[in-house]
């Protein structure tokens, strides 16, 4: 069984409450779930949010929409993932984040297929030699490897971002990197800032009414026809949140060992 776990919370520092921001009249989380449900590879989808009171409204909305939801630690997202996966008993887990309402289910399925065919422990389409736009990220891992990561990961970045322990230890895990035929990695389709949301809303307004199942190349074509769209959020860098977590790692190690050098 392949389980997709979509992490989401209401306390985003850069765009609070973004999971429920409306896109064409529906919450962003619903728009992303609509796209995930078009997958031919995922057998079950669970929203993993926190037990913090701020996420009560998110749970209420998910339940009203018939979206399965589970709650766990606010800050230890790795533990939140593991507890959801352990309860569901999958062979493989797909990690998704709730800031990707333009997720392409075909790209996600291709990543899963690549993972299975290569018999990898962990596979990502955003690991190295990036080719996909930011916002189409998908990670796939064997449950046993997620469990080992849960047991062994210690750094704040490893607990907050779930998978760094996996891809930073190629001596322990067999890693797969799925790449597309064309390089669109310069495109930013994730939602972390108000400008990102403005971009996504314009994409939905342009494409969704005529084709609710629009795909990556449909968005690429739209942006190529209307290059001003990309300028809306072009000033932001990819993976800024993870970079901030690495600073926390240094502070953590300084407090424990009196050194700022992160060990191998």
Brief write-up:
It contains eleven helices and nine strands. The protein has a seven-stranded mixed β-sheet, sandwiched between helices. A two-stranded antiparallel sheet has the order 2-3.
What characteristics describe this protein?
alpha/beta, seven-stranded mixed β-sheet, two-stranded antiparallel sheet, 264 residues, 14% strand
What topology emerges from the helices and strands here?
Blueprint: E1 2-7, E2 22-23, E3 26-27, H1 28-36, E4 44-50, H2 56-64, E5 69-72, H3 77-88, E6 92-97, H4 105-118, E7 122-124, E8 139-142, H5 143-152, H6 156-160, H7 164-167, E9 175-177, H8 194-207, H9 216-225, H10 228-231, H11 240-257
Parallel strand pairs: 1-4, 1-6, 4-5, 7-9
Antiparallel strand pairs: 2-3, 6-8, 7-8
| Spatial extent as radius of gyration | 18 Å
Taken as a percent bin, the fraction of beta residues is 5-15%
How does the overall form come out from the CA principal axes? globular
- What summary fits the major beta sheet? 7 strands, mixed
Count of DSSP E strands? 9
Q: Structural class, please?
A: alpha/beta
The CATH class turns out to be Alpha Beta
Q: What is the spatial order of strands in the main beta sheet?
A: 5-4-1-6-8-7-9
Please give the alpha-carbon distance between the first and last residues.
33 Å
Q: Helix and strand string, N-terminal first? A: EEEHEHEHEHEEHHHEHHHH
Query: Which residues sit in consecutive blocks of at least 5 with pLDDT less than 50?
Result: none
Helix content: 40-55%
Task: Estimate the mean pLDDT confidence.
Answer: 92
- Number of helix segments? 11
CATH superfamily name? Spore Coat Polysaccharide Biosynthesis Protein SpsA, Chain A
> In the CATH classification, which architecture applies?
Alpha-Beta Complex
Assign the CATH topology.
Spore Coat Polysaccharide Biosynthesis Protein SpsA, Chain A
Question: Total domains, how many?
Answer: 1
